[in-house]
Structure formats: C-alpha cells, structure tokens
Amino acid sequence: MFSFRKIWASVSVLVALFGLTVAEAVEQQKSWLVDSLPGIPDDYTQRMYSGNLGKDEQLNGDLFFWMFESANASFANRTIIWLNGGPGCSSEDGSLMEVGPLRMGGNGTFHLNQGRWDELGNILFVDQPKGTGFSYSLDDDYMSDNHEMAEEFSIFFEKFLAEFPERANDTWYISGESYAGQYIPYVASKLIEKDLVRLGGLAIGNGWIQPISHYNTYLNYLVEKGKLDLYTEQGQYLHHSWADCMLALEQLQSGSGDVEKCENFLYDIMFMLSDKPGNTCMNMYDISLESSYPLCGMDWPAELENLTPYLSKPEVLQALHVNTTYVKEWKECSNDVSNNYAREGIDSSANLIKDLASKIPIMLFYGENDFLCNYLSGEDLLKSLEWNGEVGFGNASWSSWYTGDSTDEPAGSYIQARNLTFARIAKASHMVPYDHPIEMKTLAAAFFDNDIQRLPTHPSEHLPDPGHARHSKWLYLSLLPVGLTVSGLFGLYVCRKFQLFGLKEASYEALPGSP
C-alpha cells in the first residue's frame, strides 16, 4: 500500500546520514581553514582553505591547493580551477598576482584585487605537477608526461572532492595560462573520462598549445609589431635561424632532430633585437618593456621580489598549512620539473582541444604584447584546425569589445564559432589578469556565463554586472507570484466595483446578535 509516512521516514534517514557526513567533512575542513594570514587587509572576510591533503602512495608525493570561497552568493556553486604553466611554475602566481582576491603591493602587504575572480565563483589554485611550488615529490619522482600528469591530478581531485563533498555538484571550469595550454586539455579530458564533475568550460590564456605554431610565427609577430625588418642583414640572419628551427621540429616529429636549434633561435632574437646587445633585451612576456640580458623577462613581474620571500616566511608556511617536512621555502618555478618536461615541450594539445570543443565551451585568450606565446600562434593553430565539422572560423567575423567604462579604445577583439571563442586583449602581457585585471574579469565573466555576445561592442554601451542575465531570470521568476496575486486582486476589485459576473462590492453588515 502507498504510504507517504514510509517514504518520509526513508528520506529522513538519508538526510540524517548525509548530514552526519557533511558534519564530519566540515570538521575535517577546519584543518585546512586559513584563519589568519600575515599582511592581508581587514576588509577581506571570505573563507579560504589551503594545504596538502596528505601524501599518497599513488602520487608518491602530494599536491598543494589554495581555495578561496566565492564572494558572490549567486556563484556559490561555480568553482574555477586555475593552473599556471612553466612547466613547473607555481599557481601562487595566479593566486597573488593575477585572479585571486588579494594582490601584493610594493611593501609586502596586500590589497584587494579589482580583477578578483572570487566574485565569479570559488577559485581553486593547485601547484602541480609534483615538485611545483608547495607541492612535493618523494624520491625526486618528477613528471615527464602529460598523460601521467593528468592521471595524478585526477587522483588529487578525487581526494579533494572527498574532503570537500559540497563542491561535488558544482559546475567546474578550468583556466590558466602559458604551459597550462598543455595541462588544461589533458586534465579536462581525464576528469571527463572519469566523470568526476560537471565541466562548464575551459579558458586558456596565451597557451603553449602547439609549439610549432609559436616558432613559426615569431618573426611575423615581430614584423607586425615593428620590431624587425626581414630585408636587413639582421632580418636575414634570423630568417636562417628560423629555418633551422623549423627543420629540427620536422625531424623531431619522426624521432630525430634537436630542439636546441629552436632554443638557439630564441636566443638569437633576444640578443639581436636590442639597442645594447648582451646588456639589455626585450621582455619576452611584454614587448613594451625592456629587461636585462639574459633574463629577458624571467625576473618579471616586479612583485616577485616581495612575493618570494613572503611565501617563504615560517609564519606564512604555517598559516597555509604547508608540509614543511618536505617543503622549506617557496620557489616560483622548479628547474627539476621543467627539465623533466623538456620533451613534452614540442607536443601539441590541439587534438584534445578539438575533441573537447564538441563537449564544452572553450575560450583561448591572448594578451597582444606577449611575444613568447603570441596571438599569431593561436591564429595559425586555429586556421587549420577542424572542430565540430568545419575548419577554422569559416564566415564568422571579428568584433571589437569594450569594458563599458568611459574609454573610447576597445579592450580587445574576439571571434566565435561552434563552441570556441578566440579573444585578444589590447596592450596586455603574457599574464593578462596581472596588468589588465578589469578587461580580463569582464571577458571571463561573459565566458563563464556562456554569454560572450553580451560584451559591449561600442564604447557608449554599459556592461551588465557579472551574472546579470541569471539575476534577471530569477528576479522575474521570484516576482511572478507577486504579479499574479496583484493582478488577481485588481480583477476581483473591478468585478465587484462594476458588478460583473454577479459580484457585488463588499460592504460591512453586522452579524445577527451583534451590538
């Protein structure tokens, strides 16, 4: 016999069990709660968690995470993974210099980041692969393969979801930059393969996706930016150096050749394109800046000078729950990880992007001042890439976009077709969120809302708040019952006023026996 009582009893038992599980998880999460951090501003009040989940036999080490909870209740169930590149560079670059809520100032203290992504969702920064940043590898067992990297990330991720079960039903996005153009497609494919979470999309900035496209476009980029004339002795020399590199890459595809030819090609560019060869050089991450030779931008951004000693302070290591048995200090990039990934540096993740675009939205965005992973390399990649049944962007056209402020200059341009968006950000560097935080946040908000077309295409247009469309929909739905009630009462009043349908206007009459 059908019984609501039995069903409710069963549901109550499940709720009680689930509540116990959540309570246990919340108690466990306290061990990763960052309740104080030297130098952060008093007006930052969101919860954050960080640390190592515990060394794992499968990982032969452990990965470090830092999660900032969303400052916008509308996006409490959206979580964004951020990965920096290298290979072997820490995602704390992203947390404290790019998309995190806190930015380090010149005096070693923090201020709130105007381009903070925690207003777009929860943000999870992960130092990976092992040996990167605050992550560690036992027995110096470093990654050398993207497939192995993705498998180990998925093992970490499963442990993370076990410790933070409330995040399991979130919509997840993966974003990052540079060599994360290799990491992200492999990680996304693995998470989809294991069906761990619901992925909403991927956003890759100045990604190292198809190396041959980078080397192939370096000279064209320099010519387009007015840095090089190919019809000079200097230009001819660099053209020959480029030809040696391209031949080496072709040979590498068949198992021979030497990537050193391409490294020499880069060195030639950095040395020759200088007013003082051997003393200064172009910053390879932002061609509007000059750097000292042979660093050529490796000591950039300037905040690294303060960030590195800050993250190595004992009180900061303790506050972030770093496992100091294995990690004594923070290094932005690991040579051990980078050297083990050397061969992977020539591989392409383009075919994975092609496959993923049939499942989820993807955005490739490029700061236009970046030389190393320049926007022409992205265009070169996509013009010959087939995805979702067609090659390239077909008949799609470029659109300029604005941030909605008072400036008459466009923030950049974009083109979109068949689930893939290609965007350029004017005057931005390799680390777009670092030097163009508002532009990057504007673009990211539109992408995460799956509404790139809402970007203003004229300087006079005003940009809606992040999630504007979602707010509007739920606002209208919440007001619908109110509207119906008001309409019904007004209709009843009219019917009684004019005695329609036999209804008369109500008047007070004393009940029998009333005084």
UniProtKB/TrEMBL annotation:
EC numbers, comma separated: 3.4.16.-
Cellular location(s): Golgi apparatus, trans-Golgi network membrane
Catalytic reaction(s) noted: Preferential release of a C-terminal arginine or lysine residue
Main location: Golgi
Short name of one Pfam family: Peptidase_S10
Record's protein name: Carboxypeptidase
Keyword Ribonucleoprotein: no
Bilayer disposition of the protein: Single-pass type I membrane protein
Source species: Schizosaccharomyces octosporus (strain yFS286)
GO molecular function terms attached to this record: serine-type carboxypeptidase activity
Family annotation (InterPro entries): AB_hydrolase_fold, Peptidase_S10, Ser_caboxypep_ser_AS
Signal peptide segment: 1-23
Record keywords, A-Z: Apoptosis, Carboxypeptidase, Glycoprotein, Golgi apparatus, Hydrolase, Membrane, Protease, Signal, Transmembrane, Transmembrane helix
Biological process, per Gene Ontology: apoptotic process; proteolysis
Function field: Protease with a carboxypeptidase B-like function involved in the C-terminal processing of the lysine and arginine residues from protein precursors. Promotes cell fusion and is involved in the programmed cell death.
Superkingdom: Eukaryota
Enzyme class label: hydrolase
Family, similarity comment: Belongs to the peptidase S10 family.
Any one Gene Ontology cellular component term annotated for this protein: trans-Golgi network
